[in-house]
């Protein structure tokens, strides 16, 4: 704090007493303002960086359970393409049929709650939002099965420890249903990905509904954030490490390997912004303790 000195170099208490202090905003005015700022930040983060998605069905069990909430990185695919083994959220094409129809909110309160939840990204997914695992990239040849009943990508069988409930081998393949484990070879078209659910017994995926355009991918699910007992990351399984690059991959350096550190780093700016807002709402104990620029 700068002291005011008189002509003799001593502090002038009278001028210090009459110096106007910074006016404090009453709590009843400051609290609504902070809530508005926090809400706007949540909308911005949800729109451009991160979004939480609710898991409504069992198509990804036991990796994801019904009721889990996953955090989705929405900017990662702006700088690179999806990688085999990643769990992605996407909008289904016209061929994709929702496994569970969302229940419309009842009454004006339910509608308002759904709208606010959509804005901040904590509501149930839309009817055409799906979450699956990337199995094949553009140019890949995907088929099932080898002698051990495994999925093959470019002729290489996948050992999939995340698949706990697989489809039966004795059911004949049907291109309109995903009941059978077997399906004919599919060459993934350019600009699309072949996705499958981890619970193959019930998952309706690219086996019968077709590949998904990369442009329809919303982002990568990289972490289970709720319930707290299931807090965990969603890394790429090692079984995809030995696969060659797809035939449709452009010439050039290999793609950047995905790391959970890069996804979790997106939490830092969001946490920092919220922390700044929270700190600004703390009342000062006294004017002498208040920091000035």
Keywords:
293 residues; 8-stranded antiparallel sheet; alpha+beta; 12 strands; 2 domains
Would you count the extended β strands for me? Answer: 12
CA-based shape = elongated
Category by helix and strand content: alpha+beta
Could you state the order of secondary-structure elements as H and E?
A: HHEEEHEEEEEEHEEEHH
The helix tally amounts to 6
Are there runs of 5+ residues with pLDDT below 50, and where? 110-116, 251-257, 268-293
The proportion of residues in beta strands is: 15-25%
Separation of the first and last Cα atoms = 11 Å
Summarize the biggest pleated sheet. Answer: 8 strands, antiparallel
Write down the overall mean pLDDT: 76
For the record, the count of structural domains works out to 2
Proportion of residues in helical segments: 10-25%
CATH architecture of the largest domain: Ribbon
CATH class of the largest domain: Mainly Beta
User: What is the CATH third-level topology name of the largest domain?
Assistant: Umud Fragment, subunit A
Give the C-alpha Rg: 27 Å
CATH superfamily of the largest domain: Umud Fragment, subunit A
Describe this structure as you would to a colleague.
It is a single chain. With 293 residues, the protein is an alpha+beta fold. The chain folds into two domains: 43 residues; 204 residues, Umud Fragment, subunit A. The protein has six helices and twelve strands. The longest helix has 22 residues. It is elongated and about 75 Å long. The protein starts with 12 loop residues before the first helix and ends in a 13-residue tail after the last helix.
